[in-house]
Write a structure and sequence with these properties.
The structure holds two protein chains of two kinds. By secondary structure, chain A is an alpha+beta fold. Chain A has helices spanning 5-14, 23-26, 50-63, 115-124, 141-146, 154-157, 242-253, 265-271, 299-318, 329-332, 365-378, 409-428, 438-447, 450-463; strands at residues 19-20, 43-46, 67-70, 87-90, 97-101, 106-109, 127-128, 164-170, 176-180, 210-217, 219-220, 224-232, 259-264, 288-296, 323-326, 351-361, 385-389, 395-405, 432-434. Chain A contains 14 helices and 19 strands. Chain A is globular and about 70 Å long. In chain A, 54% of the residues are buried. In chain B, 59% of the residues are buried. The chains are: A alpha+beta, B alpha/beta.
């Protein structure tokens, strides 16, 4: 079903084999496993060069057609659903690791480089990067960085966007620009001290440009891994007392771990593959499971680190906190990247997985987990909350995950409502939603500084006056 | 089964896109996806197509049927799928094809394939009487009741010039071992594996029933196949139609013969060899070790692995009748060309296969890549034949 004028213009740029307006092609790009409403693009285009992307963006501007970038089709949160139609720009074939600079410590990747591909290549050279937690190895690496995702080294190095050292971007007018030190230096090693303009791109969800190259920090890959686990033995109604939240903060500040993460009891059972409905939680099991992961270059270093973490946990136990050590043997064996997380979606027998993630002060997790439990209970879902502390901060990821049955309309509707209520809980806790779906953006802007929203709109209008870049996504 | 019967399973697809890439090597695994690129060529996209067809949000069309047929049914996606949908993926693909057939939306080449099989028992309209000509002068005899094994050769082994050489090589090995076996010659019929995977259920049932009846009349108890495709269908599908034969692919039988000392090996190839796992021997039937054991036991061979191997192997592009229809051909992204480049990058001098379909696909790809002087494709039967004492 080729034939229209736009189709012909697109085909001139990328070749007819790389453009489609067939319904059966478009539908694959219209949805994701979340409850965000599907929306069809008008065209799907596969680009293989930066020059093609520039031409496509210029064409989109001229013809006033929306353009939405996508990579590995593992998207969640409706991130690449073209809310107002237009062109979905599939970048998965731009999958080169352009440089791994071991002397200065960064890698430059194209947008189609997958998490697994990057990890496999870096592993050969004894390095790694903070790998987005949750997506499979086939997911794009770049989106997990430019959308402020959390990585498996977040407990040591912070959120993934903090690891970005440089980028090349096609702006909405088709201009190509470098941001970060690489705008001046031949090296892609640092964002400052020149003015850091990456804020014009990071977290904008494709609303201000298309990132065509990304520089990120690489780190030497330690050989040894240890995990220390503990459970918090409380109640479903008061799962995380403030004393326990302060204990987590203390552990995070000890600066020994690469990750400190926790899960509600139900989440751990789902991870083990148990199906809905779960049996009641046995009394002897904890309400929350936590683990601290550390790595080391020698066994001696690992022993020392592990011992210190264990001692900190013991101190917590001895001080009367409702915690006790738990076995983590099973999790110690899990390597990143992993498809372990994808099994969650089988819980209610149905492929769907929605989530609302946030950066929230750890001290407010106390209120947050309690209230999220209430939301899960209200709709008859297993409470599935994941928590991770960011390095050197008193804040972390608080994420409500909702596996559901895509084939059951009642489940779909319930999760839509739960997602909205989750947003309210997180905002009440002073949290900020990341990879925010449109409805979450709307809620944040409602509560936010009006002048901040005004500035966002002004920036968007300046960069993208014809509103072609992922319009509708940020509700601006 | 009709597509409707899979309604309650299709939504099990997690839409995660993990069907695109192999775990561990993190290299692409889907031949159609690599060739054409759009999401609809991967399992994720086909689940969305199937769901939308069932929900009335998508109409059948020739263009849709073409997408459905550009898949080799290699099963790579099922290996990567992390959720329960993995058990339904190929069944849904097959149901989509059956419906394409029912709606007469198949391409002319698929139609011709079915017609030729129906009329001539092979895809190339060759005469049935010529089916056993490859065996002339080899000493391989017609199967007689009482023979231990029926050597089932298949269409490529019987009619393709290169396939003939493989058929003869295996025949010579079996003769050398002293095994009692025979072929059906002009009485051999198509096994139907590709017919089934292309969605012509009626024709497949006809072939399966005729073959089973013939084998039973001859008192066949054990079958050894040259092709993994025949092995797959006879082992996994024929029992549904009353077959009770013991079926082996030839690498499994050769391994047994070597282990029992019935085949003696001298120094054969002196070369670095990489082995390409045929999808219908490996992923579909879990046989990864026998071919490797055979190669490793031949003095002079250094076996090296490609990045994509065993369950994460990359299809040659010939599965599900594509060796005939060739829907995935064209350009440097055709699966065979990708695979021979990968084989060459290992430093191997020989690309070993255990399938006549892989042999023809990869030899063609080698020529297109201009690598004929640097890499040679050999079947394990040929390698083994050269190593016989």
């Amino acid at each position: 079903m080729a034939g229209d004028k736009i189709y012909a213009l697109l085909a001139d740029i990328v070749g007819s084999e790389n453009v489609s307006n067939e319904l059966h092609t478009l539908q694959g790009y219209s949805c994701d496993p979340t409850t965000n409403p599907p929306s069809l693009p008008d065209y799907v285009v596969i680009a293989t060069t930066v020059e093609q992307i520039q031409k496509l963006v210029r064409l989109a501007n001229k013809e006033r057609i929306p353009i939405v970038p996508a990579v590995g089709m593992s998207n969640n949160g409706g991130l690449t659903i073209p809310v107002e139609g237009g062109i979905v720009l599939d970048l998965h074939k731009m999958n080169k690791i352009i440089e791994i600079n071991e002397d200065i410590g960064y890698a430059i990747v194209e947008p189609g480089v997958t998490i697994g591909q990057a990890d496999a290549e870096l592993k050969k050279r004894g390095y790694w990067v903070s790998l987005p937690v949750g997506p499979p190895g086939s997911a794009g690496l770049l989106p997990g960085y430019i959308l402020h995702g959390y990585g498996h080294l977040g407990g040591k190095f912070g959120i993934n966007s903090e690891q970005i050292t440089g980028m090349e971007v096609v702006l909405p007018d088709g201009e190509l620009v470098r941001l970060g030190g690489c705008a001046v230096s031949p090296y892609w090693f640092h964002r400052t001290p020149i003015p850091d303009l990456m804020g014009l791109i990071l977290g904008w969800q494709g609303s201000t440009g298309i990132v065509t190259k990304l520089g990120i920090n690489i780190y030497p890959r330690p050989k040894f891994k240890a995990m220390v686990g503990w459970g918090i033995f409380t109640t479903h109604e008061e799962p995380l007392p403030e004393s326990c939240a302060r204990f987590l903060i203390k552990l995070g500040r000890a600066d020994l771990t690469y990750d400190i993460s926790g899960h509600t009891w139900g989440a751990v059972q789902i991870g083990r593959g148990l199906k809905y409905p779960l049996p009641p939680k046995p009394e002897e099991e904890p309400e929350l499971y936590f683990s601290a992961t550390t790595y080391a270059f020698t066994e001696e270093e690992l022993d020392v680190k592990k011992k210190i973490i264990e001692n900190l946990v013991k101190e917590g136990i001895n001080s009367g906190l409702p915690i006790a050590t738990t076995d983590v043997t099973e999790r110690t064996k899990v390597e990143m990247p992993t498809k372990y997380a994808l099994k969650y979606s089988d819980h209610r027998g149905g492929g769907g997985l929605d989530y609302i993630g946030s950066i929230t002060p750890v001290i407010n997790w106390t209120q947050g987990i309690r209230r999220l439990n209430e939301v899960f209970d209200k709709y008859g879902f297993t409470s599935y909350i994941r928590l991770s502390i960011y390095r050197g901060t008193l804040q972390g990821m608080m994420r409500a995950i909702m596996p559901y049955n895509r084939g059951d309309e009642n489940d779909v509707e319930a999760v839509r409502k739960m997602a909205r209520e989750t947003v309210q809980v997180i905002l009440d806790c002073g949290g900020l939603i990341y990879k925010a779906p449109s409805f979450a953006c709307e809620e944040m802007w409602k509560r936010g500084d009006p002048n901040f929203l005004k500035l966002l709109k002004k920036v968007k209008q300046t960069l993208d006056p014809n509103r072609i870049m992922n319009p509708g996504r940020l509700c601006l | 089964m009709p597509l409707e019967d899979y309604r309650e399973f299709i939504h099990l697809c997690r839409l995660c896109g993990n069907c695109r890439q192999a775990d561990t090597s993190y290299l692409p695994v889907c031949p159609a996806g690599e060739r054409f690129g759009f999401d609809e060529y991967y399992s994720r996209g086909k689940a969305i197509i199937a769901q939308n067809l069932l929900d009335g949000k998508l109409d059948w069309s020739q263009s849709l049927a073409d997408v459905i047929y550009r898949c080799t049914m290699c099963g790579a996606c099922t290996e990567q799928c992390p959720v329960a949908y993995k058990d339904y993926i190929l069944k849904v693909f097959e149901a989509l094809r059956e419906e394409s057939v029912d709606r007469s939306l198949i391409s002319p080449s698929v139609k011709k394939f079915f017609e030729n099989i129906y009329l001539y028992s092979n895809p190339w309209r060759e005469l049935r009487e010529k089916r056993g000509e490859w065996s002339k002068g080899t000493g391989i005899k017609q199967y007689q009741p009482g023979d231990e094994y029926l050597y089932y050769v298949g269409c490529i082994g019987s009619y393709d010039e290169r396939g003939n050489r493989l058929a003869r090589a295996l025949g010579e090995i079996l003769l050398h071992s002293g095994l009692s076996f025979g072929i059906l010659g002009s009485e051999e019929n198509c096994d139907g594996n590709e017919v089934k995977l292309l969605g012509e259920k009626g024709l497949f049932e006809l072939l399966a029933k005729e073959n089973i009846q013939k084998f039973k009349e001859l008192g066949v108890k054990k079958i050894v196949t040259l092709s993994p495709h025949a092995y797959n269908v006879m082992k996994n599908e024929y029992p549904r139609y009353g077959a009770g034969f013991e079926v082996k692919h030839y690498v499994q039988l050769i391994r047994e013969l070597v282990r029992s000392g019935k085949i003696a090996i001298s120094e054969g190839l002196n070369a670095r060899v990489t082995y390409h796992d045929p999808c219908f021997l490996g992923r579909h039937n879990g046989e990864y070790d026998a071919p490797r054991e055979i190669l490793e036991n031949i003095p002079g061979i250094e076996l090296v692995e490609m990045g994509r191997n065993r369950e994460n192997s990359f299809c040659c592009g010939g599965g599900a009748g594509n060796f005939y229809t060739d829907f995935l051909h064209g350009g440097e992204n055709s699966p065979g060309r990708i695979r021979v480049r990968e084989a060459y990058s290992t430093g191997a001098e020989v690309l070993a296969v255990a399938c006549p379909s892989c042999m023809t696909m990869l030899e063609d790809a080698l020529k297109e890549e201009g690598l004929e002087e640097k890499l040679v494709v050999k079947d394990i039967a040929e390698i083994m034949q050269e190593a016989l004492c």
